[in-house]
Amino acid sequence: MAAALALAERGRGRTAPNPNVGCVIVRDGRVIGRGWTQPGGRPHAEAMALAKTGAAARGATVYTTLEPCVHVSSRGPACADLLITAGVTRVVVALVDPDVRTDGSGIARLQAAGIDVATDMLAGAARRSMGGFLTRQKLGRPFVTLKLALSADGAVAMASGTSKWITGPEARAHAHLERARHEAILVGRGTMEADVPTLDVRLPGLQDRAPQRIVLSTSRHPGESGGIPAMEAERAPLADPSFRWGDGGAAWGSIARPADIATLAGVDHLLVEGGAQTAASFLHDDLVDRMLFYRASILIGGGRTLPDIGLTDLAAAHGRWSLHDTRRFGSDRLDIYERTRS
Predict the structure, then answer these.
(1) Is the peptide bond preceding residue 165 cis, with omega within 30 degrees of 0?
(2) Residue 166, Ramachandran bin (φ over 0: left; ψ between -120 and 50: alpha; else beta)
(3) Is the previous residue joined to 275 through a cis bond, with omega within 30 degrees of 0?
(4) pLDDT in tens, 242-252
(5) Active site includes 67?
């Protein structure tokens, strides 16, 4: 299952509105098939893995990070039916699919066909892996990751607003990898006007995985005073409904409020990258699910920090975030926090 979860990460940020699923097929102690959900959501992971096994799948065990689907689509067959036809004898599932079209029905269909089914293997890791899909299913919006680069004394920029570069090249390279794992990236209007950022992915071999670019602006109409800069106006719809992964971030979209992220079509993973006021507004509205704090070994002194996030009681700040992971990139440290929700 750990191998299946690793495969699922290959599809993260590319499969919306479908989940990024991984699948491994094992027979006689040997892996005979591997698959992961392809860009755009099809083919599914199980279909990809079965396509590599042929008749060898008969009698095999299948490890899949999400319950096999049962709904027939014009884009492909139901995975539960494919597994039954292939003659597998056991299916191990990390998570039950919350999609109402499946939600236990896939497991029931497999069991009715005489296939042994086990569930809840590495379920916590699977929830983390498919956070975008699960958040869209439960909350009706994308999974939001907030990225901030901080000095050792907690500043996000100098007093003048200058923030290039707080962190070193290794940390910035990792930030580009994070961009490649999201369907969309968002900055505030101030960052847009000051930097006119490309928000692309500048890593060898991943340049074509640039996410859709979104600007948070109180003016939702490009070209108006205070809105998106005129140089981008001709390609800045409210939220480009025609965008699909692989467009290289050519289109810009705009939203007026953080809550408008729910309207972004084809976006299950959203990276909020700049600036401080935008970060504060998402935190204020409790729309952040994961935080990436890149902490540099520098002191700024008198620099800019996060604005008000609506906290009125210090006691209320405790218990909301848990430290999930810490890594080192050169002289910088990355702390990854996850929002604690019921």
Answers:
(1) yes
(2) alpha
(3) yes
(4) 434 334 445 67
(5) no
